[in-house]
Specification:
Blueprint (H helix, E strand, L loop, with lengths): L4 E3 L3 H13 L4 E6 L6 H5 L2 E6 L10 H11 L3 E3 L9 H9 L3 E2 L4 H8 L1 H10 L7 E2 L6 H11 L3 E9 L2 E6 L2 H19 L4 E5 L5 E9 L5 E13 L2 E7 L6 H17 L4 E9 L5 E7 L6 H8 L3 H9 L16 E8 L1 E2 L5 E2 L2 E2 L2 E3 L17 E6 L6 E2 L6 E9 L2 H14 L1 E3 L5 H8 L2 H5 L6 H5 L11 H23 L15 E6 L2 E10 L2 E6 L4 E6 L7 E6 L2 E10 L2 E6 L2 E8 L1 H7 L13 E3 L4 E6 L6 E2 L4 E7 L2 E6 L4 E6 L6 E2 L4 E5 L1
Parallel strand pairs: 1-2, 1-4, 2-3, 4-5
Antiparallel strand pairs: 6-9, 7-8, 7-9, 10-11, 10-13, 11-12, 12-15, 13-14, 15-22, 16-17, 18-21, 19-23, 20-22, 24-25, 24-31, 25-26, 26-27, 27-28, 28-29, 29-30, 30-31, 32-39, 33-35, 33-38, 34-37, 35-36, 37-39
Helix pairs in contact: 4-5, 5-6, 7-8, 12-13
Length: 673
């Protein structure tokens, strides 16, 4: 086995590899940029080596710098994680020349399957059904438009060396094809150092289902079931699960056998993923092969009990697979939610800053098939910590929260509770959106496609409005919590004589536009909250004032609330809803109804920066008349280019920012007459 493993990556995946290497007794070496000097993966590794400035194209994807770190560490093996150099054949060649093992597939397999254009051609030659498209290189935007018309809109423009949703654009018109071509090239160059673009037909209403394969250097190859990855935003997966609620055993077997045959055709050895799009009739089409570990690999590990990172290391060390296809059994159901540093209320734009609070739900012991399968498992793969910073230079992923249960319904319910228990403060994040997806009827039914988010949230995410029953449960819990806080205030020491404060039993709770008159009857075990009209809910829990997480039981069912303080009540976040709950005495409630509402300032004639980022270019000048939908400027953040467009017709009166300027959220970019 290897003397030590250098991990040519950062963040969550670097931490993930370190955990398995530590379990195997193999020392690890981390690399880091200036921005990652205090990162979690640096703290976890046995050694750490600095490799350059924050931008990835000056550090993590510079082969010479990584090779220098390998020589300095004396490591005899390198795990590339995902992204960065993980599918770079030149990096694999450099390792081979230096006598260092690459914990991944052979160079030939990377070149054949890692390049999307070449892999499509190989798949076609192997009689694998593929999506129609143009596999040649495209020189300029004019050619992109011409090819798009030949294929027929809509089309997908994709970076040949791409991954993780970078360098991908959907175009429905000539103008979108022209703009998308340039943006895809820019993102591809910045993220992968390779700006080649190809175009294929965009198949509407498909499912995205992928097969996990595992091959060794002795000719053995197996597949470990599938992952359903249809819930995506901007071509990047958000929620994954295994197995798929759509596939039957026959389709699963056919897809798996085809995936293994394709891997063997290129001499594949390591863990890899063959991605398919699947239509409503269970016809499947080869999409691409990722010659690396996938972000969503934990759900496969949870339903099979196979540590994929360990298997990759053993294959790289020349060991044969210790399991056969007959040994692969799928147990239970697993779901993964990707927690991103992005603000769902601002169109999911990236958010950066310091994690002032980061408290994931407690992880449970790793699942092993046949051992207490009735137990729910919670797993959180992360690369951050409380007090750490989310940088603008890298992918905005904070964590991958996974749950396992004996069936899909149990895994979903476990995920709901885990999301409600996950405390993140200091930055914008997508926890509310993930909670909304877990409660969405279409997701619960399993009847979703890659168009799920676009169809169900066409105007973006504006939060969740709870049903009447859930609102009453929150109101009852908050009334009981307010009573506990009032009792503490009534018992404060140092009071003046004859100023005893009594806590009443009658209160008014206002939440989500509703107003409830309630009466609280408390005892040693909790409180009974009776609503005007006679309905009563029993509330129990151990919340004390100051706790930011309340784990309650209301009417016999669990209710987890994130709790903040606002004047006269609480800020409550649960099941994707963000609520202000005011608990007042009857007289206070009467007076509150007379207070005027504060209106927000008018920003309708301003273009505000929706995220922290860098101005790439400004497309208009002062005095220009702009039309609805016209591009105004481009902002780059976290390796993604975002084109800001005019919401309505107008005239530009003032421009406050130019190319190269760094902007904060809500900075005024330009103003209109």
């Amino acid at each position: 086995m290897f003397n030590k493993i250098l991990i040519a990556n950062r963040g969550e995946i670097a931490c993930r590899v370190i955990k398995t290497a530590r379990k195997m007794g193999i020392p690890t070496v981390a690399i880091y940029s200036d921005a990652d000097a205090n990162a979690l993966h640096v703290q976890m590794a046995d050694e750490a080596i600095h490799i350059g400035p924050p931008p990835a194209n000056q550090s993590y994807i510079v082969i010479d710098k990584v090779m220098e770190a390998i020589r300095a560490s004396g490591a005899k093996a390198v795990h590339p994680g995902y992204g960065f150099l993980s599918e770079n054949s030149k990096f694999a060649e450099a390792l081979d020349a230096a006598g260092v093992a690459f914990v991944g597939p052979p160079v030939g397999a990377i070149e054949s399957m890692g390049d999307k254009i070449t892999s499509k051609k190989i798949a076609q030659e192997a009689d694998v059904s593929t999506v129609p498209g143009y596999m040649g290189l495209i020189e300029d935007a004019d050619e992109a438009v011409k090819i798009s018309n030949q294929i027929g809109y809509p089309v997908m423009l994709k970076a040949s060396a791409g991954g993780g949703g970078k360098g991908m654009r959907i175009a429905w018109t000539d103008e979108e094809a022209r703009e998308g071509f340039q943006s895809s090239k820019n993102e591809a160059a910045n993220s992968f150092g390779d700006d080649r673009i190809f175009i294929e037909k965009f198949v509407t209403q498909p499912r995205h289902i992928e097969i996990q394969v595992l091959c060794d250097t002795h000719g053995n190859g197996i597949f470990l079931g599938e992952r359903e990855c249809s819930i995506q935003r901007r071509n990047q997966k958000v929620v994954e699960e295994a197995p798929s609620p759509f596939l039957d055993e026959a389709t699963r077997k056919a897809m798996g056998e085809q995936a293994v045959a394709l891997a063997k055709a290129v001499g594949y050895a390591s863990a890899g993923t063959v991605e398919f799009i699947v239509d409503g009739d269970k016809n499947f089409y080869f999409l691409e092969m990722n010659t690396r570990l996938q972000v969503e690999h934990p759900v496969t590990e949870l339903i099979t009990g196979v540590d994929l990172v360990e298997q990759m290391i053993r294959v790289a060390a020349g060991e044969p697979l210790s399991i056969t296809q007959d040994d692969v059994k799928l147990h239970g159901w697993a779901i993964e939610n990707r927690l991103y540093a992005e603000d769902p209320y601002r169109g999911f734009l990236p958010s950066i800053g310091r994690l002032t609070r980061y408290r994931p739900p407690a992880e449970t012991a790793s699942y092993s098939p046949g051992v207490l399968p009735q137990n729910v498992v919670i797993r959180n793969d992360t690369g951050v910590y409380e007090g750490g910073e989310i940088s603008m230079y890298y992918d905005p992923m904070i964590a991958k929260l996974c749950t396992w249960g004996p069936d899909r319904a149990t895994a979903i319910e476990a995920m709901r509770v885990a999301l409600d228990s996950f405390e993140v403060e200091g930055i914008g994040h997508n926890l509310p959106f993930l909670s909304a997806v877990m409660d969405h009827p279409k997701f619960i039914s399993g009847d979703m496609t890659t168009a799920f988010i676009a169809e169900e949230y066409p105007d973006g995410f504006e939060g969740v409005e709870l049903g009447e029953g859930d609102v009453r449960r929150v109101a009852a819990a908050c009334a009981a919590m307010h009573r506990v806080a009032e009792i503490r205030r009534a018992r404060v020491s140092g009071r003046m004589d004859n100023h005893e404060r009594k806590v009443g039993t009658d209160w008014n709770v206002s939440v989500q536009g509703q107003s409830y008159d309630v009466r609280i009857a408390a005892d040693h075990d909790g409180a009974t909250v009776t609503f005007d009209g006679g309905d009563a809910l029993r509330v129990s829990g151990d919340w004390t004032p100051g706790d930011q997480l309340a784990e309650m039981t209301v009417d016999g069912a669990p209710l987890v609330l994130k709790v903040g303080k606002v004047s006269g009540g609480f800020r409550i976040r649960t099941r994707g809803a963000d609520l202000k709950v005011h608990v007042r005495s009857p007289r206070q409630a009467e007076l509150a109804r007379l207070m005027p509402e504060k209106t927000p300032p008018d920003t309708s004639k301003m273009l505000l920066c929706p995220m922290p980022g860098l101005v790439v270019k400004v497309d208009v000048a002062e005095g220009d008349e702009v039309q609805e939908g016209q591009a105004l400027c481009t902002i780059e953040a976290m390796k993604m280019e975002n084109i800001l467009r005019a919401e309505k017709k107008g005239v530009v009166s003032k421009i406050n920012a130019g190319a190269g300027d760094s902007l904060a959220v809500d900075d005024v970019i330009m103003e209109f007459e």
